[in-house]
Amino acid sequence: MTTLPRAGRRAGALVAVAAASLALTACGGSDQKLLNDGELVVAMSGEFQPFSHFEGDQLTGFDFDIAVAIAEEMGLELETQTGAFDSLIQGLKSDRYDVLIASMTPTEDRDKQVDFTDPYYLSGATVFVTNDSDCTDPTQMDSPVIGVASGTTYESFLSEEDWVGEIRTFTSDITALEDTEVGRLDAAMTDRLVGLFQINQADRDLRVCGEPLYTEEPAFAVREGNTELVNELNAALAAIIDDGTYAEISEKWFGQNILESDVEAPADDAEQTSD
Predict the structure, then answer these.
(1) Using an 8 Å Cβ cutoff, are 214 and 124 in contact?
(2) How far apart are CA 15 and CA 3, in angstroms?
(3) Going by C-beta distance under 8 Å and a sequence separation of 6 or more, which residues neighbour residue 203?
(4) Which strand ranges, in their side-by-side order, compose the sheet holding 206-216?
(5) What is the distance between the alpha carbons of residues 228 and 230, in angstroms, rounded to a whole number?
(6) Can you point out the beta strands (E) in 171-218?
(7) How far is CA 58 from CA 46, 55, 71, 265, in A?
(8) What is the C-alpha to C-alpha distance for residues 160 and 144, in angstroms, rounded to an integer?
(9) CA–CA dist 262, 167 (Å, integer)
(10) Which of 61, 78, 107, 72 is nearest to 258 (CA)?
(11) What are the backbone angles phi and psi of residue 26, rounded to the nearest 5°?
């Protein structure tokens, strides 16, 4: 297994983050900590179930619940917005959001555009196939057609792999999984937890093929140079980990603490639950 390059400290450092002042005095302006005084504007895709998705007209999911807890810990009103995943960084740079809580994995290219906090969960990039597939190792597949969400690390990773036949991009990982299930794709690649949720909760005729191809440590993203907000988000994240809020949210959506999960655990050891 390989590990994507990433910025910031590893997840184990989260619990050691020193308490930082959460007093917020700035307001408005692209060079300020927050866009609006007393408010945290958080963006996510809304198309990455169970991390962020809609139930009717209500945004929900693990990332949404984490955003609620972070805003509460910081003493701020929460404002949530959604956008296509591949547009979120540009939206952040254009001063539409304060922070992305969007299951975004730091990479060298992304780190040139935004600043990242400490990671807030661990997972693995995993290939999913139909149950009747003979796949045991995705790298041994015969020039497969693989679906991914546009603008993701999965797309960039696969573009460098010579065993891949064709990459098809979608606005949502879920659509890629759906197309795999009905035979329009040989496989889909997404976050391990997302695929397992679709298998366990949506009863999709899919399974994991092999081990995760690389590990992921998603983090919050803020405007480049907004060090003060990074520090306060890290302190708030450490606080909700310490007081058990994080574990409660994680158990709600996944049946386990995904900050401590083993991404190489067998698929049947990662049963997930959701309210």
Answers:
(1) yes
(2) 22
(3) none
(4) 2-3, 206-216, 123-130, 187-191, 145-149, 166-170
(5) 5
(6) 187-191, 206-216
(7) 10, 5, 18, 32
(8) 14
(9) 28
(10) 61
(11) -85, 155
Residue type, 138: P
Q: What are 221's strand-pairing partners?
A: 100, 116
Q: Which two three-digit tokens encode residue 110?
A: 């992304």
Please tell me what DSSP assigns to residue 90: H
Residue range 198-245, pLDDT digits in tens: 999 889 999 999 999 999 999 999 999 999 999 999 999 999 999 999
What is the DSSP-derived secondary structure letter of residue 65? H
pLDDT in tens, 26-74: 344 445 899 999 999 999 999 999 999 999 999 999 999 999 999 999 9
Domains of the chain: 2-121+218-259 (3.40.190.10), 123-215 (3.40.190.10)
**Residue 79 and residue 33: Cα distance in Å, rounded?**
15
CB 253 within 8 A of CB 272: yes
- φ/ψ (deg, to 5) at 225: 90, -5
Phi first, then psi, for residue 202 (nearest 5°) are -100, 0
Q: Which residue has the tokens 């041994």?
A: 140
